Amino acid sequence: MAKVILRNLNKTFVDQQSKKEVNAVKDLDLEIHDGEFMVLVGPSGCGKTTTMRMVAGLEEVTSGEILIGERVVNDVPPRDRNIAMVFQNYALYPHMSVYDNMAFGLRLRMLPPIWEQLANPGKTKEIKASIDAKIQAAAKKLDITDYLDRKPKALSGGQRQRVALGRAIVREPEVFLMDEPLSNLDAKLRVQTRFELINLHRELKVTTIYVTHDQVEAMTMGQRIAVMNNGLLQQCDTPQNIYRHPANMFVAGFIGMPPMNFVKGATVQMEGARPVIHCGGFSVTLSAERTNVLAAYVGKEVVFGVRPEHLNDKSLVSGTPENVIRAQVEVIEQMGATSNLYISLGGHALVSVVDASTIAKENAPLDIVIDAEHCHVFDKDTEKAIF
Ligand code: ATP
To answer: For the whole model, what pTM was predicted?
Structure first.
C-alpha cells in the first residue's frame, strides 16, 4: 500500500472554443494516508475528476507534484503507477466473458511473449494457475463466481460494477481510484454496494481515492472527506468534524440534508456577560464561552447558521430551555421517523427537522427551541466559520 501526496497541484485547461483558460484545480495540497479511504466530494465542475485523472496519469499536471509512495509520478505513465481504476461506466470489454475481463490485464502483465510461453509450457501453466487463483479469490469475495462465463451484457448494473471492481482487485494495486462507481445503480443497490465497498476496503486496506458528488456517500464511506468547490479544496477532515465544524459557509451548506439554515445580516452584541446574535425578528443568546471568539465582531454584521435538527419543537424538549421562539409552521413533510417543518421564524424562512411525534400543525404557531450550543457564526466577507 502507499500514501498519495498532492503538492500544490494545479490544472489549467484551455477551452478550445473560447480559448479562455479554465483553472480546474488550484493549489491543491492533500495527503492521503497509507490505507486510507479518502472521498473527494463537491458539486459538478469543482475539479474532482480532473484531480483523479491527474493521479491516474490520464491528465497532465500543469504544475505541482503527485507522489505515490515515496515516488514523484508526474512523468510516470499510468500503467507504471501501480493503481487500479473503477469508473461509473464500468468500462468492461463487451465481447469478453467476465473471467476474461478480469484476466485481461493480468495476462498482459504476467505472461511472457507467446514464443516464450511455447518454449516453456511448464512456467506458462504455473502463471496461468496463479492468474486463475487471483480471479477465483476476487470472484468469491465479490460473489460473482456464478457469472464468470457470462458476457457483461448478461449482467445487471450492480453485477457489472462488481466485475469492474474484481478487475481492479486482481491487479493488487497500491492505490484504488474510484470515480462515481455507484452512480449508475438504483437507489437500493447503491446503498448495498456502498456497504460492500466499505467492507472490501476494511479487508484489503488499499489506499483509496473515491470521487462523488453525493454527500451521503461521502459521509458514509470516507474515513476523511476532501470537499472541493471551484477547483479549490475547502476542507479536509473526518465526516464528523466536517459536519460539526464546517470551515466555511460552502461546506456548511453542502454537507447536510436538509442543508444548514443561514440568516444573513445578523449582528453580534454583548448583553451582560453573554454574546447575543440578533437575526432581525429573533435573537439567540450564546454561552459566555463564545465571548472571546466573537470579541472582534461585536457591533458587526455576521451570518448566523443553524442546522435543521438544532431547531426543535419545544414540546419535545425537556426542562426549561433557553432561546425559545414562536414560529409559524407553513408546511410539514413527513419523513417517517422525522418530520421536516418549513417554518417562518422572525420572518426568516427556515427548515427544522423534528421527531415525527411533533405537535406541529401546518399553518399554526409552534414554539421552537434554538440549540445555541450547536449554532454557527460566519464572517460575512470571507464566509469563513468563526465557530
Ligand atoms: P462532475 O461531477 O460533473 O464530473 P468534476 O468536479 O469532476 O465534475 P471536472 O470534470 O474535474 O469536474 O471539471 C473541472 C472543470 O474543468 C470544469 O469547469 C470543466 O468544465 C473543466 N474541464 C474539464 N475537462 C476539460 C477539458 N478537457 N477542457 C476544458 N475544460 C475542461
So the answer is: 0.92
